[in-house]
């Protein structure tokens, strides 16, 4: 079988455009989130008010997560991306003007955040779908590994840049900077050429979603992988967001610096793992990769949480990031391979929505475990729970596969 090289990706200009525009768009979006979280606590009168503002960036996924996928499959993906960038640019420009006129309001910023994330509900499945559209199938593993690499670099670097901006510049300057990052990617969107057959029929959202669920019923192993991942996030995310700050402060005496270092190494490990997986060119057994990756991911976080020193934690964090890539890339490849092109956006939206539901309850579960068992035991319970979830999922997957063989 002919092997492919990363250099071959350079032959596909439209894939490069997708890569660059998503990097710039994602960079600006993450910086906006960092600034939002800071303003929520700086401008709010109470913790409850701050929590409501922070949740304004999460609610759209519950309301529009699945719907965004429907329209991403039915509308012109290029136009969806253009409207996302223009809409985000106009909203951040309005926040810039409000700070210039000294009429800023935390509630307006919350509404702005809600609108920007709503745009992302349509943008995310559209941009994800373009990777498989702009590349031949033989290059999907490498194309997705680079896409994941750039995504992780943006997620790891943007918070650092956001912190520097908050410490150095005024709010007016920061939102003007975010506005430029929203509008500049339009240069690459305009150059993008994507074949699209106009659908003159009225879009029936419920019918489209019913078609997606019908597809997932026929792809039971893929559906089980997606749902299992959402349940894993229910146990993992809360311990990452609530448990690690406690460990960094009480066990390593590093405070916020230790927490940010671990998060950065998670992203660095994920980037390294994405490159390694791209070289492996996996073309099958995606669910097994995902479940084993989840198990390693959970025990990696447990290792970080139980580490007596920041040095040991840092080494394990790098491994944990690599383990996460064994989830992310195979998940994307599995969806791309087993989902018809006209259903891609909806299935990616289903993945995002299920993941968000898992993350939404994670903090409450982690808080309960920490209060009930203590911080160290909570990491152990989290890892064992993920092991049981993934083991049970693998058992059901093998049972489904055996049924098919029997038939």
UniProtKB/TrEMBL annotation:
It is a multi-pass membrane protein. Keywords: Cell membrane, Membrane, Transmembrane, Transmembrane helix, Transport. It is found in: Cell membrane. The chain crosses the membrane at residues 12-40, 52-72, 81-100, 106-125, 146-168, 174-194, 221-239, 259-277, 289-306, 312-335, 347-370, 376-398. Residues 14-401 form the Major facilitator superfamily (MFS) profile domain. Its main location: membrane. PROSITE patterns: MFS. PANTHER family: MACROLIDE-EFFLUX PROTEIN, MAJOR FACILITATOR SUPERFAMILY (MFS) PROFILE DOMAIN-CONTAINING PROTEIN. This is MFS transporter.
């Amino acid at each position: 079988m002919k092997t492919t090289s990363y250099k071959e990706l350079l032959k596909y200009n439209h894939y490069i455009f997708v890569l660059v525009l998503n990097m710039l768009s994602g960079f600006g979006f993450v910086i906006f989130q960092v600034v939002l979280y800071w303003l929520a606590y700086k401008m709010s009168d109470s913790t409850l008010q701050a929590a409501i503002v922070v949740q304004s960036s999460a609610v759209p996924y519950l309301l529009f997560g699945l719907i965004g996928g429907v329209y991403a499959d039915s509308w012109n993906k290029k136009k969806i991306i253009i409207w996302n960038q223009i809409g985000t640019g106009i909203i951040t420009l309005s926040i810039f003007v409000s700070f210039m006129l000294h009429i800023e309001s935390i509630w307006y910023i919350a509404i702005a955040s809600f609108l920007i994330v709503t745009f992302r509900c349509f943008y995310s499945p559209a941009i994800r779908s373009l990777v498989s559209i702009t590349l031949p199938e033989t290059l999907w593993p490498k194309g997705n590994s680079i896409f994941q690499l750039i995504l992780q670099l943006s997620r790891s670097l943007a918070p650092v840049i956001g912190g520097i901006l908050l410490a150095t510049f005024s709010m007016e300057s920061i939102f003007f900077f975010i506005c430029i990052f929203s509008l500049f990617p339009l240069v690459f969107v305009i150059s993008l050429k994507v074949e699209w057959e106009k659908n003159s029929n009225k879009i029936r959202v419920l019918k489209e979603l019913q078609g997606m669920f019908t597809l997932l019923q026929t792809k039971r192993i893929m559906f089980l992988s997606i749902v299992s991942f959402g349940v894993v996030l229910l146990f993992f995310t809360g311990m990452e967001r609530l448990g690690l700050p406690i460990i960094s402060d009480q066990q390593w005496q590093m405070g916020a610096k230790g927490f940010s270092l671990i998060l950065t190494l998670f992203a660095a490990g994920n980037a390294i793992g994405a490159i390694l997986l791209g070289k492996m060119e996996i073309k099958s057994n995606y669910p097994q990769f995902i479940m084993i990756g989840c198990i390693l991911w959970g025990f990696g976080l447990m290792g970080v949480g139980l580490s007596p020193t920041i040095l040991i934690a840092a080494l394990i964090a790098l491994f944990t990031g690599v383990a996460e890539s064994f989830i992310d890339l195979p998940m994307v490849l599995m969806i791309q391979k087993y989902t018809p092109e006209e259903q891609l956006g909806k299935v990616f939206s289903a993945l995002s929505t299920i993941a968000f539901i898992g993350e939404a309850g994670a903090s409450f579960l982690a808080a309960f475990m920490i209060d009930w068992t203590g911080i160290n035991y909570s990491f152990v319970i989290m890892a064992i729970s993920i092991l049981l979830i993934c083991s049970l999922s693998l058992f059901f997957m093998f049972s489904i596969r055996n049924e098919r063989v029997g038939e």
